[in-house]
Amino acid sequence: MAIPSDYDGVKLGDKMTQEFVDDIIERFKEGKKLPLKYVYQIILAVKDICYNEPTMVETHVDQGKKITVCGDTHGQYFDLMEIFRINGRPSADHAYLFNGDFVDRGSWSCEIALLLYAYKWLHPTSMFLNRGNHETDDMNRMYGFEGECKAKYNDRTFKLFSESFSALPLATLIGDKYFVLHGGLFSDDNITLDDVRKLNRHNQKQPGQSGLMMEMLWTDPQTAPGRGPSKRGVGLQFGPDVTKRFCEKNGLEAIIRSHEVRMEGYEEEHDSKCITIFSAPNYCDSTGNKGAFINIEDDYKLKFQKFDAVKHPDIKPMAYASSPMMGMM
């Protein structure tokens, strides 16, 4: 596939380069697209990298380094740029973990997905991507990502992204202390980290209506003890006692999850053993919430940082969605 003759950007060979990443950051800010050849190349390279990662990636923070945990970014590209502006861009010494829901809602989902993938290809051992409930086909059809891929690129682009989403890990364990996953905990107290390690996510492309994958992507905390029905109609809700037992059984300090708006960008619940992080400020241009992220250095202390939404071009959220009135799933 030839590169269009009017393409004025950095060329991409068989390896990702910092120069290419820096260039596409600026191209995307200016509303420019990538040649299809590069789009396919980036998605396929990252699909292969992620496919070969375990279902739960395990990482540590070495001395003098840090990892930043981000929650949902939901296609809000200019707010992602604000994170990188105030906190630094991904590098070999500054790892990032994006905890799912990169796409849908916001109208720059292609740009976020391609940039995060480019960074994953450039820094495969210090850029971590967990799957969220919106890295799934049914969500993408309703909430905009499929339509955006077709509008900006083509149908094959969405199909390749769909295949790559199925390859993404479902969780990341940081320093044997923090279990990071998009949704939350399980319907069965007997589930352990070993069960997550053993889960073959490649046998099941989409999460379905039951099972470990669905629960990892969809569940939410509640204030009452025990478990309750989900307000979403999918998954369940889990109480502080469930979180405490899981952390004690698995030797964890806390679970870190995303999946829900928090007005201050984050919330510590369940005696600080369940932490929600959400990185899409003023979600859908209407919620008025702050965004937040967590920095973790080699002392493994959680350092929260909040930030405000920034201006973006006048393209409304859900511009590519099948129905702009869909609820906040």
Automatic annotation (TrEMBL):
SUPFAM superfamilies: Metallo-dependent phosphatases (SSF56300). One of its GO terms (cellular component) is nucleus. It is found in: Nucleus. It comes from the Eukaryota. Its main location: nucleus. GO terms for molecular function: metal ion binding; protein serine/threonine phosphatase activity. InterPro entries: Calcineurin-like_PHP (IPR004843), Metallo-depent_PP-like (IPR029052), PP5_C (IPR041753), PPP_dom (IPR013235), PPP_phosphatase (IPR051134), Ser/Thr-sp_prot-phosphatase (IPR006186). Keywords: Hydrolase, Manganese, Metal-binding, Nucleus, Repeat, TPR repeat. Its EC number is 3.1.3.16. Its cofactor is Mn(2+); Mg(2+). It holds the Pfam family Metallophos. Residues 130-135 form the Serine/threonine specific protein phosphatases domain. The keyword Repeat applies. It catalyses: O-phospho-L-seryl-[protein] + H2O = L-seryl-[protein] + phosphate; O-phospho-L-threonyl-[protein] + H2O = L-threonyl-[protein] + phosphate. PANTHER family: SERINE/THREONINE-PROTEIN PHOSPHATASE 5-RELATED, SERINE_THREONINE-PROTEIN PHOSPHATASE 5. Belongs to the PPP phosphatase family. PP-5 (PP-T) subfamily. Protein phosphatase that specifically binds to and dephosphorylates the molecular chaperone Hsp90. Dephosphorylation positively regulates the Hsp90 chaperone machinery. This is Serine/threonine-protein phosphatase. It comes from Aureobasidium pullulans EXF-150.
